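Hi all, long-time lurker, first post. I run a small reading group and we've been trying to get comfortable going from sequence to structure in the token notation. Rather than ask abstract questions, I figured I'd post a concrete chain and ask someone more experienced to write out its structure so we can walk through it together at our next meeting. Sequence below, copied exactly:
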Amino acid sequence: MALVRSHSTHKTVAWLCPLVSLLLVQFPSNVLAIQKEMTVSIAPGKVDCFYETAKAGQTIDIEYQVIDGGHGDLDISFELAEVTGRTIFADYKKSDNIHRFPVPYDAEYKFCFDNGFSRANSKTVFFELIIEREGDQEDSSWSDIDLLEGLTPEEFYEMKVQDMEDAIKRVRNNLTKARQLQDMLRSHEARDRNVAEENYFKVNVWSFFQILVMVAVGTLQVFMVKSLFDVDSRAYKLLTKL
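-- Answer (accepted) --
Happy to help. Here is the structure in token form:
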């Protein structure tokens, strides 16, 4: 009996490694139904819409942020609605927001960014859209040790493979969440950098005009003081009359 177990163990391990590799390759497409991250530019006076289909039981998560708007104008109007026209969420002139919507039935939804209120400035918007079913990322591992009794070596290793698959799912989900957080941090950094550059431009322009005014005032003062000592100048005659 010991030899049979050893042979079965060796045989199972032989196909275990390719199976794990196959799980690593094929699994990522099943983690999230839909996941999109996009950076779009909305022209002045324009509305850009995106369309996605969601099924009953899924949840729509969307987070957006205006990272550049020109001259510090960081706001956009947003609408989540069904293609039939029913509005679910609507924001007016906000710089960022997060929305979560449980889908009650199969339908097609549109996500619109409206820059119609702006006549001169285009808006750069970063948004992340996730459409998934609740419980897709929950653990489904078995924990009843009594189930191990009476199992063949092949069945035991199949359950172990299931445990490995669940572990891979958890790692994949954690990596996905970490990447999403990093993307949001990058969008915050891009917005702050754009605001800093705009403030830098304004400070430089204002400083330039101040320098021009100071030079003009200094020149005028020198001319007026010089005219006080020149009795033949028109400025001296005008000042003496005043």
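A couple of things your group might point at:
Strands lie at 34-42, 47-54, 58-68, 76-82, 87-94, 96-102, 107-114, 123-133.
The chain is about 45% helix and 30% strand.
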